[in-house]
Design goal:
mainly alpha, transmembrane helix
Length: 512
């Protein structure tokens, strides 16, 4: 804030600026804040300083930045000055069409705060822009709007330029009125040279040759090259009308020489301005290319970082999925092993009980043999012994047949497809094939389920099928297109009338 106040004070005391480094501190600071008015003011003063440093393009850029928040800024005096500066910069570049909107906006701002001096100068510049672009009707309207503010300027520039337009339109009486007004506002003889030129032109147009020559001679003393050249031009016309050909030619030569001097000055200024513009464009282009390179490198870094992060996340996802899958397979294997072990222990228990019973019967038979009791009771004991031996043999045969059926099931196409392929969606025929396979392998599995639990739905039966073939929860979800774990818990509760986990349900189906 200090640097903004310091720059503002220096500008008001007409201190010459050597650099824009101080105000740059202020602009950098306010760019990071929401203080829109001070931000606009900082950019405005930076534009003024760069304009003083003969860097019009940089100044223009600063002024345009000062207008970024124009609708939120309520300092109309500041907005008027900013718009006026942009309009004048476009005028100096001879881009009058772009200057006009900014000058009009500057006038609106000054009008809102009743700044008559600001309006006078802006309307004068706006009238000149309209005149150069041959929009004479608009120029007249603007100049006439500015007339009430002309005294505030302390000179007769506005009525003088308005009179010149009316001369070009051939409205001499109106032109004379404004020439008279201009003469009254120009209080010194030296300041009246532009009006003397217009007055000499007026008298020339109205065929008052002597009066024209008188005022043109006065205008000839003007230090302004433009006014001096204009006086020479119209004096040559006067001498031509007076048939003083030699003087007319001499005056015309002087006019040509003066005009050449003006053209050289303008050309030099244009070359200097274009040279600066070219250099500025080169600097901006170099800066732009540098920014593109930095942005490209930043994008590459972001891309590499994104790729690395993506690889890490994918790796973690794959690892997590693998761990979860391994855990599910391990749990399924443990359940199956526990079920098989229970069944094996049960068979062993039955076989042991049968063996013990056989031994008892054998002992009884031996005792009966010793006692020579070979009647009906002995035959009955022999028969019971044989039944138990056959039962044990049947259990062994059933175990072998069941192992064979399970091996055949695991070698079937439908079993392999379900266990090996990802994102399997089973058709109705494939579900029927799986049902048939399980019924053949596990003794009419479906019929026994329906008989034991008549209210079981087909969706629940499908879950039982997939559980029976030891499929993981992840694979079940992919096949069924929904998470089956809640359904398995509910089905267990429905069957056993008590709460149970997914593992409890899996154990039940494995042994069913």
């Amino acid at each position: 804030h200090y640097y903004l106040l310091l720059t503002e004070a220096q500008d008001k005391t007409f201190v010459k600026h050597e650099t824009d480094s101080l105000i740059t501190i202020a602009t950098d600071y306010y760019e990071e804040t929401d203080d829109l008015e001070r931000k606009a003011k900082a950019w405005y003063y930076k534009g003024l300083i760069n304009n003083d440093l003969d860097q019009p393009m940089k100044a223009q850029e600063c002024f345009l930045k000062a207008l970024r928040d124009e609708k939120q800024v309520k300092d109309y005096a500041l907005l008027g000055r900013i718009n006026n500066q942009i309009g004048m910069l476009y005028t100096y570049q001879h881009v009058y069409e772009r200057a006009i909107p900014y000058l009009k906006q500057a006038n609106n701002c000054f009008e809102m705060i009743r700044d008559t001096i600001g309006q006078a100068y802006v309307l004068r510049d706006l009238g000149r822009a309209y005149t150069v672009t041959q929009q004479l009707i608009d120029a007249i309207e603007v100049y006439r709007e500015a007339l009430p503010y002309a005294p505030a300027m302390g000179n007769g520039t506005i009525p003088n330029e308005l009179a010149n337009i009316y001369l070009e339109k051939g409205e001499y009486e109106v032109a004379a009125k404004y020439i008279d007004q201009a003469l009254r506002l120009f209080r010194t003889e030296e300041s009246r040279f532009p009006t003397h030129l217009v007055l000499g032109k007026y008298y020339l147009e109205t065929a008052q040759i002597d009066s024209s020559e008188y005022y043109l001679q006065k205008a000839l003393s003007s230090p302004s090259l433009q006014t001096h050249a204009g006086a020479l031009k119209y004096l040559s016309y006067v001498k031509e009308k007076q048939s003083v050909w030699i003087e007319s030619i001499a005056l015309n030569k002087r006019y040509e020489a003066c005009r050449d001097s003006i053209d050289r000055i303008v050309e030099t200024e244009s070359i200097r301005r274009m040279d600066y513009f070219y250099n500025y464009q080169k600097i901006q282009e170099a800066l732009y290319q540098s920014q593109i390179k930095v942005m490209k490198k930043d994008k590459e870094r972001y891309l590499y970082a994104l790729i690395i992060c993506a690889c890490v996340f994918i790796s973690l996802g794959i690892y997590s999925y693998w761990r979860r899958r391994e855990k599910e397979i391990k749990n399924q294997k443990e359940i199956l092993e526990q079920t098989i072990e229970k069944q094996r222990q049960n068979n062993l228990r039955i076989k042991e009980e049968n063996r013990q019973q056989i031994e008892k019967l054998q002992e009884q038979l031996i005792a009966m043999e010793k006692e020579r009791q070979e009647g009906w009771e002995g035959q009955q004991l022999l028969q019971e012994k044989r039944v138990l031996e056959i039962h044990n043999e049947s259990i062994d045969a059933d175990e072998k047949r069941q192992s064979l059926r399970i091996a055949q099931m695991e070698d079937s196409d439908i079993y392999k497809k379900i266990h090996t392929e990802d994102c399997v969606k089973l058709t109705d025929d494939e579900w029927r094939a799986l049902e048939k396979l399980l019924d053949q392998t596990f003794n009419n599995f479906t019929a026994r389920l329906k008989k034991s639990y008549p209210k079981i739905s087909y969706k629940e039966i499908q879950v039982c099928y997939l559980t029976k073939i030891k499929l993981s929860s992840t694979k079940m979800t992919k096949i069924l297109r929904y998470n089956s774990s809640p359904l398995r818990s509910r089905l267990y509760k429905k069957i056993f009338k008590k709460t149970g986990s997914v593992q409890d349900f899996n154990s039940f189906i494995a042994g069913f």
